[in-house]
Amino acid sequence: MNTYFPNIPSVKYEGKDSKNPFAFKFYDPERVILGKKMKEHLPFAMAWWHNLCAAGTDMFGRDTADKSFGATPGTMEHAKAKVDAGFEFMQKLGIEYFCFHDVDLVPEADDINETNRRLDEISDYILVKMKETNIKCLWGTANMFSNPRFMNGAGSTNSADVFCFAAAQIKKALDVSVKLGAKGYVFWGGREGYETLLNTDVKFEQENIARLMKMAVAYGRKIGFEGDFYIEPKPKEPMKHQYDFDAATAIGFLRQYGLDKDFKLNIEANHATLAGHTFEHELRISAINGMLGSIDANQGDYLLGWDTDEFPSDVYSATMCMYEVLKAGGLTGGFNFDAKTRRPSNTHEDMFLSFILGMDTFALGLIKAAELISDGRIDEFVKNKYSSFESDIGKKILSGDATLDELSAYAEKSASCPKPESGKQEYLLSVVNSVLFN
Ligand code: XUL
Ligand code: CO
How far is the CA of 45 from the centre of ligand 1 (A)? Predict the structure, then answer.
């Protein structure tokens, strides 16, 4: 320890009055909420790519941060330095999981055989660290969007050769994920979509994506992967239209191609808002379909409108998220901070301060969501709202025995037009405020 971040102590819970920037104000891992420890409610994960690889490059400017960790980028020494720095980072914050793309771990070589050899070497190295620290892998994935070969898509490509390269990358990423004991395997279809329908056979592309996913499931199960496969919906960016537009679209796709037993969804907050939904909407749609698997915890910016991948600071949104998660009985996956420090927040200290912000925000969200549930006024309102279906004609409708003739006769007999009751949105919002700021 203390090799890469010598000036940063292990981060501990000090309570809300603490002014220590390197302390948690709300995340108290051992605190029990609704019968479970906070750290069990919130299995946090570090995203290898943002935290250990991305150094601030954006569309208009180069790196602002130093992520060399004392080694020359593009070498295996650098890949190993990132492992060492990453494990020191996670240990100091008490983060128990990480997520990775294949090419986050090692520099990609021109020859796929060499890339795979490097992946073997680095995963051996990571495995030793995992055993020493008890840090685990939440999920792995293959980056099938950065390399120019995927410019026309991976599963959706027009080239059978490129399709085979995508298959090869998935096979290796699954091998590494299984070797590291990952709980999940993610498909985020960054290039699975189109810029114009004029050059695109949508049906062909979607069928081929499904074929690739089926092969991945068959291979994964063959090598002993027992976890969940995930689709991570996103409506656009980099493509104009991406096929996994939102939770409902992805669920429809999975059911259409018989993939729904092996897949769940990985819901990312910023992707939800890009799709014109709230984070909680995407979580609710996933949960009611039995497909809420994991979360990419971040937030966007309504003024910028693109995928800014900011660390979560919005307690209101985190509360609504945790309300959905608690109601769904928790996640099988975890909370991966798919988030990056702002470009001018370019120091190693900023990496820690960002995670402290994100972890405290979700801790507050958990505390407040549990209070909302214990308060009971929202649940009570919703239950009463639908109470007309608990007896008489409503009960009959739910039983599935009612016919249109019968219901029409019922309405004709009542004759006078029914008066709907208030939805009381403003009252419910004031309940939320009173719990948030009690
Ligand atoms: C991109 C994104 C990805 C996925 C994994 O918007 O969220 O980092 O989480 O490929
Ligand atoms: Co993501």
Answer: 14
Residues 290 and 418 in one domain: no
Give Cβ neighbours of residue 11 (< 8 Å, ≥ 6 apart): 22, 23, 24, 92, 93, 94, 352, 356
How much is the average pLDDT of 288-300? 98
Q: What is the pLDDT of residues 141-163, one digit of tens each?
A: 999 999 999 999 999 999 999 99
pLDDT value for 153 = 98
To test ligand 1's pocket by mutation, which of 268, 271, 306, 336 has the most ligand atoms within 8 angstroms of CB? Answer: 268
- Predicted confidence at residue 1, as pLDDT, reads 46
Residue that is last in its domain, among 328, 358, 375 = 375
Q: How far is the CA of 280 from the centre of ligand 2 (A)?
A: 16
pLDDT of residue 415: 84
- Domain assignment of residue 48, given as a range: 12-375
Domain edge (last residue) among 325, 346, 375: 375
- Is 2 among the domain residues? no
175 is catalytic: no
268 lines ligand 1 (CB under 6 A): yes
51 Cβ below 6 A of ligand 1: no
Gap between the Cα atoms of 394 and 128, Å rounded: 60
Task: Specify the pTM.
Answer: 0.98
Tell how far the Cα of 81 is from the centroid of ligand 1, in angstroms.
23
